[in-house]
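S.,

Sequence below, as promised.
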Amino acid sequence: MPVNVDDVMQLFCHLSHEKGMKAAFKHSGRGALLAGATAFLGGLVGGPPGIAVGGAFGGLLGAWMTTGQFKPVPQILAELPPAEQQKLYDEAIVILRRLDWTDVAQLTALVVGNAGLQQQLTGVLINYLSKELRAEIQYGE
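The prediction came back faster than expected:
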């Protein structure tokens, strides 16, 4: 049976929900830009001591920004643009194409009932979130 992108996204949502997966995106580029900008502004206002104060303040603010807010992975998957969903689908279909199923409920049951398949698909999801989206993953409620 041809596998639908939406079906695979629903499967990933189910797996990530069961594992309590959350992800946070690191915004290190923004944090570094903020630190540099506040150091520059501090230098304009206060000269060399202003650079130090602005840099310290910007560094702290930048560090706070890079901590990220954790969001449930199913929510992140639902918000992915179609092109990104297709990338994730392309990786998952290599594992799923050998299965015989009729609907998403049966596909989910097949995967949930097979620890090896769960592990492979969870690995695909974690790899995608880490490498493509540069997200930090957390487990549990």
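Residues 88 and 128 are 7 Å apart (CA to CA).

Coffee later?
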